[in-house]
Design goal:
Elements (H helix, E strand, L loop, with lengths): L2 E2 L86 E13 L11 H12 L2 E3 L2 E2 L5 E7 L4 E7 L15 E3 L2 E3 L2 E7 L5 E3 L2 E11 L5 E14 L9 E2 L1 E2 L4 E5 L2 E4 L7 E2 L3 E7 H4 L2 E3 L4 E2 H5 L5 E2 L7 E2 L13 E2 L4 E2 L5 E12 L34
Parallel strand pairs: 1-19
Antiparallel strand pairs: 2-5, 2-25, 3-4, 5-6, 6-9, 7-8, 9-10, 11-12, 12-18, 13-25, 14-17, 15-16, 18-25, 19-20, 21-22, 23-24
Length: 386
């Protein structure tokens, strides 16, 4: 099984976005001062939920007065809610608006890392397509439902939609690449400071969609084991996890509102997540633009399997396991040890969004074209490139 990663063009946003905001309207407190390495995350650990990759005391939001058109997002919302209102609702619906990878180093958003993946996959997909001052693909939608009455969280991916404000989003619940890709619900624990931490999710397959050259979308399945969210802070209205900072806009480029993530970012994150990826599974995730698998990206010095001239893979032993080593052990669920895995950690921001029942054709695995129209009814381009 080979999971094809269809990267979009590199020109857009970046796993380089830094989660800090300077706006006094933010409901999220500033990161602790003098902690320039707070985003550095060791294996098995979680980053500070609103961390930045530099000393927060040195942040500088000195942009000129620019008018960023954030319509049709709610400009009165601290996090630009997407046509939904969780106020007074027992279940709060969110779509991630920012995801900053802090570990492993090969994927981390802070320099000196392999920021290509952050730019070309994460930001390119999460930033909306010509909505709310963003002009990326909008095809990577990670949804979160927080049940504040029963203290549970439901999370998973959504397929692309051409109308996120009208049609909304639906959880993918389908067999993709031979995997049962579906949302998972686990319990939440509320801390004394009001933040939430989830139980571990034994297995979470996160679908990442990217435009395919032939039309429609390619599907990337990110296989996370023992995934968990921690220190998630909801706003008073339950419409925000983190906040948007209009003062961070430094320039306008068409419909895009740009910031300078080296000193101030449009998004303050307010939650962290972590889990591990086995290198055997990573060797099944192909990155065509790099002509290598995710395993090779994570372990560039590992022995190489050159049997496929078009794809550089990690070499495997006689038992079929990769010879690469990571920073985490799947059997002991701890750093080091058997080193058959890599730990993945991140911080995130999210805003209220419309989530509908998962009985939509796309959520059950049917194809859609790049313009949002109906495809031929087959499965999205997936692991086998079918």
């Amino acid at each position: 099984m080979r999971i094809v990663v269809g990267l979009a063009t590199v020109g857009a946003g970046a796993l380089v976005a830094l989660g800090v905001a300077c706006s006094s309207s933010s409901s999220v407190p500033p990161p602790p001062a003098n902690e320039s390495t707070q985003c550095s995350t060791d294996a098995g650990q979680f980053p500070v939920a609103n961390c930045v990759p530099y000393d927060p005391a040195s942040q500088s939001c000195t942009s000129p007065a620019l008018s960023c058109n954030t319509a049709p997002c709610d400009s009165t919302s601290p996090c630009l809610a997407m046509g939904a209102d969780n106020t007074g609702q027992a279940v709060a619906n969110f779509r991630m608006r920012k995801l900053n990878i802090t570990a492993p180093d090969a994927l981390a958003f802070q320099p000196p890392s392999h920021v290509f993946v952050q730019k070309a996959v994460i930001d390119q997909g999460i930033y909306l397509h010509n909505f709310c001052g963003e002009n990326r693909d909008g095809t990577f939608s990670w949804l979160i439902q927080v049940d504040t009455k029963n203290n549970t969280v439901k999370t998973g991916g959504a397929p692309p939609t051409d109308d996120p404000f009208g049609k909304g989003y639906c959880f993918v619940d389908a067999t993709l690449s031979g995997l049962n890709v579906a949302p998972v619900t686990v319990n939440l624990t509320k801390a004394s400071d009001g933040t939430y931490t989830s139980d571990k999710i034994p297995k979470l397959y996160v679908p990442i969609y990217s435009p395919a050259a032939s039309g429609g979308y390619q599907t990337i399945i990110l296989p996370l084991t023992d995934a968990q969210v921690k220190d998630v802070a909801l706003s008073e209205s339950n419409n925000c996890i983190g906040s948007y900072n209009a003062d961070a806009i430094t320039s306008l480029q068409g419909s895009a509102c740009l910031d300078d993530p080296t000193s101030c970012s449009r998004w303050t994150t307010a939650g962290s997540l972590g889990g591990f990826i086995t290198l055997d599974e990573a060797n099944g995730v192909a990155v065509p633009q790099l002509s290598e698998t995710l395993c090779m990206l994570l372990s560039p010095t590992a022995p190489v399997d050159t049997s496929d001239p078009n794809l550089k893979k990690c070499a495997v032993d006689s038992a079929g396991h990769v010879q690469a080593t990571g920073d985490y052990c799947s059997t002991t669920q701890s750093p080091g040890g058997c080193k058959d895995s890599d730990w993945l950690a991140a911080t995130f921001a999210a805003s209220a969004a419309k989530i509908v029942d998962p009985n939509q054709p796309d959520c059950m695995g049917s194809a859609t074209t790049g313009d949002g129209g109906t495809g031929d009814g087959g499965s999205p381009v997936d692991a086998g490139g079918q």
